Backbone:
């Protein structure tokens, strides 16, 4: 309950430090990391669970560097990408600083508050919004939780009070931790594409975290969902709300026909990009928030302008997206899809399983 007395906060905590770009050896599990103290306007959250995302792998492996042109291959994601430059290896195209505690997904309890934050917040169960907007007088600045600041791969973390959203839910910590990054990204793409009832939506990578979230959230809007996933996961994806599941290797344009889809929600990119635009109707909308099959695509500008298509790049959530997501969770309109839970110390094994892509939904860590 908010305002309740909490156990004493230790001086040291368990955490995973990312030491630099490269392989799994760059992840160091420690038990002697100092517990942070909340600055004015911030809260200290004791983490109950933290989800794994592609962005964790991309940052560790150096994939965000413009020198890397391939997709998130198993070899590159496991050992680091050759030629990745540290000068532009952050998702913003700037230098990434180490060491860093990663983890964009986090839920837990507020255990301490900084100056200017009501003491009644102590004891609140919270879900952390990963997009952090800093009020800089010169210019508004946006950073991402677990990227430009420390994240949830630890027992404790400090975040701005406005990013720690109180939530009332009977879901477990592991289930709640599966929502922020993946479901936020998916809802953001659907919102940017203004997907509505009765529209036909194509979702790529539909068994992954963002893809499985997009299937659920599009179905929640009353859209008809066509999903792309491996045949072994077709049943699970159908259960989330897809009317049709196509294999990853399928010829999408041949299977669906040209100009048959209202919107495409893409996290894959790569060689199928041209087909994704081919199946869009005139004035169709395409949104992208990932490129696991490759960031360099073949775009015929004639397709773009002659069909009056709209292409949306999506990373920073629009204001209100996360609050809407909280409402969906509290009202039970969407459900978590947790594939497996690991201890925080098992992060390397968890990332190996994540990269094998044999799971549906999210893999979660608990400290």
Residues:
């Amino acid at each position: 309950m908010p305002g309740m007395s909490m156990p004493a906060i230790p001086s040291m905590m368990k955490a995973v430090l990312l030491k630099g770009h490269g392989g799994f050896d760059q992840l160091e599990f420690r038990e002697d990391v100092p517990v942070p103290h909340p600055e004015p306007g911030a809260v200290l959250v004791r983490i109950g669970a933290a989800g794994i995302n592609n962005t964790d792998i991309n940052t560790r492996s150096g994939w965000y560097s413009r020198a890397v042109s391939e997709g998130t291959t198993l070899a590159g994601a496991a050992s680091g990408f050759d030629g990745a430059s540290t000068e532009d290896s952050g998702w913003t195209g700037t230098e990434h600083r180490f060491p860093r505690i990663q983890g964009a997904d986090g839920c837990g309890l507020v255990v301490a508050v900084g100056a200017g934050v009501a003491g009644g917040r102590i004891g609140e169960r919270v879900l952390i919004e990963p997009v952090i907007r800093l009020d800089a007088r010169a210019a508004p600045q946006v950073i991402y939780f677990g990227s430009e600041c420390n994240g949830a791969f630890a027992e404790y973390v400090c975040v701005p009070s406005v990013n720690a959203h109180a939530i009332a839910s009977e879901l477990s910590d592991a289930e709640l931790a599966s929502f922020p990054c993946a479901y936020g990204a998916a809802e953001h793409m659907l919102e940017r594409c203004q997907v509505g009832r009765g529209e036909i939506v194509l979702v790529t990578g539909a068994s992954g975290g963002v893809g499985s979230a997009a299937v659920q959230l599009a179905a929640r809007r009353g859209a008809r969902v066509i999903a792309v996933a491996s045949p072994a996961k077709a049943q699970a994806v159908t259960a989330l709300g897809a009317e049709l599941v196509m294999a990853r290797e399928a010829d999408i344009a041949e299977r669906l026909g040209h100009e048959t889809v209202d919107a495409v929600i893409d996290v894959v990119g790569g060689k199928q990009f041209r087909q994704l635009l081919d199946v869009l109707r005139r004035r169709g909308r395409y949104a992208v928030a990932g490129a696991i099959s490759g960031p360099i695509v073949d775009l015929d500008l004639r397709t773009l302008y002659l069909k009056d298509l709209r292409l949306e790049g999506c990373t920073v959530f629009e204001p209100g997206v996360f609050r809407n997501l909280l409402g969906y969770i509290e009202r039970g309109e969407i459900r978590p899809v947790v594939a497996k839970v690991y201890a925080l110390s098992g992060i390397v094994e968890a990332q190996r399983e994540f990269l094998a892509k044999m799971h549906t939904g999210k893999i979660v860590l608990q400290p």
User: Anything to note?
Assistant: DSSP finds eleven helices and 17 strands in the chain.
